[in-house]
Specification:
Helices cover 23% and strands 33% of the residues. It has 138 residues and is an alpha+beta fold. The longest helix has 26 residues. It is elongated.
């Protein structure tokens, strides 16, 4: 056998690569089909998206949060919507559901810090911060 033939002979490489690709495709297809059949991820709820306006009154240490627009927080997508943070007296303050554009909630503030609007899903207790405001007294 000539040495030059060993370098250029790649007949055995093609079947090995073909088998590896076929196994990889089979595993990927099984994972995708299994996910749909079992329903993994079907229980997750999408966080509503909304914008909020914040007006802080230094004279009476009160923060008024107004839902400016976006999704409505209702019984289908929200277990609770609350205003939380170290500066908030009576932490947390919970909004009455439904909350839509134009609705507002006022909270009394003790100190400076970050106030967060926390959404809680009604399908499992997942939470997300949908808005925040840094309170400063200057």
């Amino acid at each position: 056998m000539r040495p030059s033939r060993l370098v250029t002979d790649d007949d055995a490489v093609s079947p090995v690569i073909g088998v590896i690709l076929m196994v990889a495709i089979t595993v990927i297809l099984a994972a995708v089909i299994g996910t749909f059949v079992i329903g993994i991820g079907s229980n997750q709820q999408t966080t509503p998206s909304a914008s909020f306006d914040y007006v802080y009154s230094v004279s009476n240490d009160r923060l008024t949060v107004t839902h400016q627009g976006g999704d409505t927080f209702n019984n289908e997508n929200t277990a609770s919507l609350s205003i939380r943070g170290e500066p908030v007296q009576n932490d947390p303050v919970t909004w009455n559901i439904p909350v839509s554009a134009g609705d507002r909630q006022a909270v009394d503030i003790d100190d400076t810090g970050t106030v967060k609007i926390v959404w809680t899903a009604n399908s499992g207790g997942d939470t997300n911060v949908v808005g925040s405001y840094d309170v400063t007294t200057t």
